Amino acid sequence: MATATVAAAPHSVALISEGSMMAHSTTLRVNTTDLNSGKTKASALAAEAGATLSVFPEEQKDGKKTVFIRITVATDKADSLINGLSTLGVTASHQSESRDLSASYNEILVLEGDLKERLDKTEDPTECQQLEAQAASYRQQLAAWDEEVSKQTISLWLEEE
Q1: Residue 93 host element (H or E)
Q2: Which of 6, 28, 62, 116 is the most exposed place for a label (fewest CB within 10 A)?
Q3: Per-residue model confidence as pLDDT tens for the chain (161 residues)
Q4: Which backbone phi and psi does 95 adopt, to 5 degrees?
Q5: In angstroms, rounded to a whole number, what is the distance separating the alpha carbons of residues 118 and 15?
Q6: What's the Rg (C-alpha) of the chain?
Q7: What is the DSSP annotation of 122-149?
Q8: DSSP 63
Q9: What's the rounded Cα separation, in Å, for the pair 30 and 37?
Q10: How far apart are CA 148 and CA 112, in angstroms?
């Protein structure tokens, strides 16, 4: 999770500051003369950056072959990887987007705090089980967001000229 200023909240839940949970993604469209070479080089660049990738099947669109590659890389290595991927051919478009997850993250933190308080007060085993399941779901969502902000997703479209 990003370093953040901590503010007091109900039920002694520490909230994160706005803007400290940013999820980043980039869409890159590159025209290349050799699709197979582009895929191979993209895979090598991703491996060099320690990224994971998924290569989807080639598609034929308007008489041109296209392949989609989804890459997930540590945020501190994303810019370098994007620069490398841009050299695979002629960049047709490059769009970056950031989403602030702070408000949603804080909302789940507060809900989880409320659940903990209810768990402490309930004596009904069935209700305890339900509350524990919901709390586990909240923790899972928070962990997913922690993971999302530590990585950047790159959607690479290679199109053969």
Answers
A1: strand 90-100
A2: 62
A3: 433 333 434 445 677 777 789 999 999 999 999 999 999 999 999 999 999 999 999 999 788 899 999 999 999 999 999 999 999 999 999 999 999 999 999 999 999 989 989 998 989 999 999 999 999 999 999 999 998 999 999 999 999 98
A4: -130, 125
A5: 20
A6: 21
A7: ---HHHHHHHHHHHHHHHHHHHHHHHHH
A8: T
A9: 13
A10: 20
The backbone region for 12, taken as left when phi is positive above 0, alpha when psi lies in -120 to 50, beta otherwise, is left
- Other beta carbons within 10 Å of 133: 9
Chain centroid to CA 141: 13
pTM score: 0.75
Nearest to 111, CA basis, from 135, 143, 145, 127: 135
